[in-house]
Amino acid sequence: MSASLEIFGITGIGEIHARDDLAGIIATAVTEHHGGLRDGDVVVVTQKIVSKAEDMLVAVDPDDPLAHKELVERETVRVLRRRGDLVISETKHGFVCANAGIDLSNVERGWAALLPEDSDRSARRIRDGLRARAGVEVAVIVSDTFGRTWRKGLTDVAIGCAGIGAIVDYRGTTDAQGRELQVTEVAIVDELAGAADLVLGKATGMPVAVIRGVDASWLRTGNVHDEIVRPPAEDLFR
Amino acid sequence: MSASLEIFGITGIGEIHARDDLAGIIATAVTEHHGGLRDGDVVVVTQKIVSKAEDMLVAVDPDDPLAHKELVERETVRVLRRRGDLVISETKHGFVCANAGIDLSNVERGWAALLPEDSDRSARRIRDGLRARAGVEVAVIVSDTFGRTWRKGLTDVAIGCAGIGAIVDYRGTTDAQGRELQVTEVAIVDELAGAADLVLGKATGMPVAVIRGVDASWLRTGNVHDEIVRPPAEDLFR
Q: Do residues B208 and B52 make contact, with C-beta atoms less than 8 angstroms apart?
């Protein structure tokens, strides 16, 4: 566990366009406005700017009510539930979420942002770029906003990560009474993504946060796809 | 949104017993070890010590493999899925979780901790006690560890809160492009509970964290039961 954490949003990141160098933009903003990145920082980058930088915007006729729906169908490999306009579906990445993860907020009218092709790879690229530019060993999380089956409201979770384990496994450790812990696998990247959202908000256009002070043992090779995405065969609700 | 946050675990909270004055113990520990609580702090208290203080421990024969199972059935109002020893069920509080929220970790062998009868009320009592003892206006969240339907690993979420809205509603606000936001209702108490877990860990016996710096507009009357628990009629997966 971490003794204490500091979380802050990064100011000075402007509008992102296709093929922008996200790592360079983030490194510059943190240096100019926040005294620079440090070894062990966790950099949380919201999906929208990753999709923009990776040219994942697609045109959607804003006057055709079916256009967004058709796009959702195209990005869906399995529909779990429908109610009215809401579709809960599995994307080709394995995520189960509303509307195949396609959100029209914070992109220009007439456009929609698809999820990155491989958000773990996106996180690795940003991490490599930050190491090259800032000379620091940091972790990177790509976050997105998902709903929950039995709880109202949305929270940010990790859709990709690099330089940090997605899960911390306490299996084999014992509690204060010497009894083996039942709760063993904590999805720290999801808790970190949600924590970052607390300083980002939704309407502000502030798309990157830094979390400082995480336990050094968490900083290892890791990824969301293998550690977090539940395979359909293990799923009780698909 | 909050500009920046600080999160720290509270040292000096010992073993909790039935009818202990949790607010008094927390106020003393924060004063002795962390310079005291401040107005606007969010105090996150893990469910286990709330259940202990509220005398929600029940005896379970540790040598009878059916004893824990029978207890889970007793606390369940509706079973959603079973697989092997795992039961996903709805508790009388409306939570959908594994094993009716009953965990044997960090309680003495031969005992199990049930969920508090009403975790929102528990949070209000702790908040009232902190106001009376420390003279500060803080928010209180009672947290517990839940799994997720389509994601592996567990995260801490809020099962009760007081002095803070469970949800922040961005409905009617517009994004940086002037378009109305699609993502509107953020479950901030769940993001705060998960953030607190990052400094608490599971094996350490550190059961309380403080989050400092949250947006002042979040501090209002609120509760988990009405704002977060999804009624079965609105649920697509029950």
A: no
Residues A17 and A127 in one domain: yes
Nearest to A197 among B9, B191, B228 (CB): B191
Kindly state whether residue A191 falls inside one of the protein's structural domains: yes
Q: Based on the domain organization, do B31 and B136 belong to the same domain?
A: yes
The CATH number of residue B183's host domain is 3.30.1330.100
Q: Which of A44, A198, A237 to mutate to test the interface with B (most CBs of B within 10 A)?
A: A198
CA distance B55 to chain A (A): 18
What distance in Å separates residue A231's CA from the closest CA in chain B?
A: 8
Domain co-membership, A39 together with A135 = yes
| ipTM confidence score | 0.95
Last residue of a domain, one of B76, B93, B115: B115
What's this model's pTM, rounded to 2 decimal places? 0.95
Task: Work out how many CB contacts closer than 8 A connect A with B.
Answer: 260
Q: How far is B200 from chain A (nearest CA, A)?
A: 6
- Domain shared by A85 and A157, yes or no: no
d(CA B114, CA B112): 6
Q: How far apart are CA B143 and CA B200, in angstroms?
A: 11
**Domain housing B176:** 6-55+116-231
- Same domain (yes/no): A69, A187: no
Does residue B95 belong to any structural domain of this protein?
Answer: yes
Task: Write the DSSP assignment of A145-208 as a string of letters.
Answer: EE--SSBSSBEEEEEEEESS-S-EE-TT-B-TTSPBPS--EE-HHHHHHHHHHHHH-SSS---E
Domain termination residue (choose one: B81, B97, B115): B115
pLDDT in tens, chain A (238 residues): 568 999 999 999 999 999 999 999 999 999 999 999 999 999 999 999 999 999 999 999 988 878 888 999 999 999 999 988 889 999 999 999 998 999 777 788 899 999 999 999 999 999 999 999 999 999 999 999 999 999 999 999 999 999 999 999 887 677 666 666 665 899 999 999 999 999 997 656 799 999 999 999 999 999 999 999 999 888 888 7
Which of A143, A141, A118, A126 is closest to A21 using CA atoms?
A126
